[in-house]
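Hmm, what's this shape?
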Amino acid sequence: MQTIIVYLNGDYLPVGEARVSVNDRGFLFADAVYEAIPAYAGRCFLLERHLARLAWGLRTLRIEADVAPLAGVGDELIARNDLGAAEFSVFYMQVTRGAAPRTHAFPKEAVPPTVYAFAKALVRTTPERWERGFGAITLPDQRWARADIKTTGLLPNVLAQQAAVEAEVEDAIFIREGMVQEGTHNNVFAVLGGEVTTAPATNHILHGVTRAFTLELCAGLGIPARERAFTADELRGADEIFFTGTTTEVRPTVELDRRPVGRGRPGEITRALSEAYRRAVAPEG
């Protein structure tokens, strides 16, 4: 088997040799941010946007780290792990505040951040599986009020996704005070009266890179789209529902809380957006 090579604090090394201090604040407090960037045939997609979001998250948490070199890290990891010909892969990077004796406040003396990254192949949804559509459930949103920061503190997301697994569906949608927010690891859209609708980019959702790109696709295709608050009841009455995300791409939901969505099959707007997304990420796109 091929040895997996990862990046840790300036070094490329086999994953089994990578070591992080038990005093690392990412381990102790989830005092860290991360990004996951899709790659197609070895090329990272929308890399600059992902790096900009990572840089914003670091500034917001007051972690001093330069994200610019990470673009080259992605290329190197893809090359070292023979992913240049992979149809679909992901470049993951994580930056913590670093290692220091445990205390809630920031370390009094500056410590270097811990920077970790890896790349791995993903299994893309086949056209046949996509055509069958996917299922989702709704759950109360129990996350903290800064879901816009892509922090590694994801325990509510983990528990919600496990609930989806136990319900034998693929996704869970967070509902806060009756209003739709997003999925556990992706953004959610509904087609309401012919208009693509998604929750506004507040502090209660992640400002998804794929989400923003999908809105741009809507504009390019002439599909009406709007960011607005909408209710769980509106979601349940939607003509179409779909998710977007780094590993999700554009994915149709045909069942919500055990009830069919629309006609119980992928809708035409979801199909048009998925096809446009696939054209955009294709090597010749």
Summary: The radius of gyration is 19 Å. Residues 47-61 form the longest helix (15 residues).
